[in-house]
Amino acid sequence: MKIMQFKKIITLIVFFSSLNTLAYANFESEEKFVSDFATSAINILGDESLNNNDKNIQFTDLVMSSIDIDFISQLVLGKYWKLASDDQRANYLKAFKAYFISSYANRLDQYSGEKVVVISSNAAKKYVIVKTNIIRDGTETLKIELDWRLIKRDGRTKIVDLSIEGISLIIAERETFISYLNNNDGNLASLIKMMQSKTN
Known about the structure:
Layout: H1 2-23, H2 28-45, H3 52-66, H4 69-77, H5 79-83, H6 86-108, E1 114-124, E2 127-136, E3 143-153, E4 156-164, E5 167-168, H7 169-182, H8 188-199
Antiparallel strand pairs: 1-2, 2-3, 3-4, 4-5
């Protein structure tokens, strides 16, 4: 009886130790990833020595190497992804990539000249949330909160969402897309045209 009780105690100690390890896990690599990405993006978009075409090429390369575009594109489309044919999915993915990059550029371009400061990071199930502030030099009290949701894919860190002042870009896009499809009989071709009209 005493042996069984001892085993239970050991099991509980191991369990709570694992929780404690998770709570105080070190996410320095994820924090550096976010800091490097955000700084690079802002520098590219704010580089006046680059023409718009060069900016677009560099920014696209940066974003596509840093985000999980397949996961994001399917999440945003919701149930309509399963209903789409292979050709529809291919056309949608192509349009979504251009739309998403344009959306990211429009938002981050607002912060040219600011610096990115990492505040904290924590685990959220299979994700890591890195909290940052965008701060303009000389105005330390004027801060914009950006939270980055990250995931590990094949040993590489990928961005799957960005929240600005508590508003998730992915959830916002998902609500927009699903609402559009619901109001247009699930017409994916129409949604693709809408995305293309915003990136041309």
